[in-house]
Design goal:
Elements: H1 2-45, H2 52-72, H3 75-99, H4 104-129, H5 134-158, H6 164-184, H7 196-208
Helix pairs in contact: 1-2, 1-4, 1-5, 1-6, 1-7, 2-3, 2-7, 3-4, 5-6
Length: 214
């Protein structure tokens, strides 16, 4: 009975641990893709016939709000501000597009802007909604508790002395569960998705801003 429960627990651990790292890597890749799309949109905004500097200012504010949300932990407010800026930039793009319907530059800008907005939605899905289901967590904790209980029951029946090995097994289970939970939470715990791509982009945007005359 002990062997069967431990084998089942190992299977659930393997299944759950296989989900968490893949989703963590997906969030990290989406952040890099979004940073690239933002950088492309920012560069193409500089070639717009008009409103280019205003669009660039909005994009700088956009990145600032995204990074502030990560630092403060207020993701809901960060998303709200980001989506408001998206709407403003899109309105500017509509205005420029209507005034220059045959412009290739405007078309390229709209294409990169649309990709930026799509990646924002993908990041929200991957970071806030694509989590390990509660039913899997419930099953994991139930099987882990049952495994430890059967190990203790078996030790009592066999009349053996309490061993530190049981404590080591319990600690090992706890560490693995904590690692899975950490990987499943993108901006909480120890293992976090690095924002370095957005930080580097923000620094390059700031360096691109001309200095104000004194």
């Amino acid at each position: 009975m002990v062997g069967a429960t431990l084998g089942l627990l190992a299977f659930i651990f393997a299944f759950t641990f296989g989900l968490a790292p893949s989703r963590f890597d997906n969030r990290r890749q989406l952040l890099l893709d979004e940073a690239n799309a933002l950088g492309t949109t920012y560069l193409r905004a500089g070639m717009l016939p008009e409103w280019g500097e205003e669009v660039r200012r909005l994009l700088r504010d956009y990145i600032g709000h995204r990074l502030d949300a990560v630092r403060s932990g207020d993701v809901t407010e960060g998303i709200r501000r980001s989506e408001n800026i998206q709407q403003q930039v899109w309105m500017e793009a509509e205005t420029v597009g209507q005034e220059n319907p045959n412009s290739i530059v405007v078309g390229l800008f709209v294409q990169s802007l649309n990709q930026m907005i799509d990646l924002h939605a993908s990041r929200m899905q991957a970071g806030l909604r694509s989590r390990i289901p509660g039913a899997i967590w419930l099953g994991l904790f139930a099987v882990a508790s049952l495994s430890l209980a059967t190990m203790g029951y078996h030790a009592g029946l066999s009349g053996t002395r309490r061993s530190l090995a049981i404590l080591a097994v319990a600690v090992t289970f706890s560490v693995v569960i904590e690692l899975i939970a950490d990987l499943d939470r993108p901006q909480q715990g120890v293992l976090r998705v690095s924002q370095r791509a957005l930080l580097d982009l923000q620094q390059s945007m700031r360096a691109d801003v001309p200095a104000r005359p004194e």
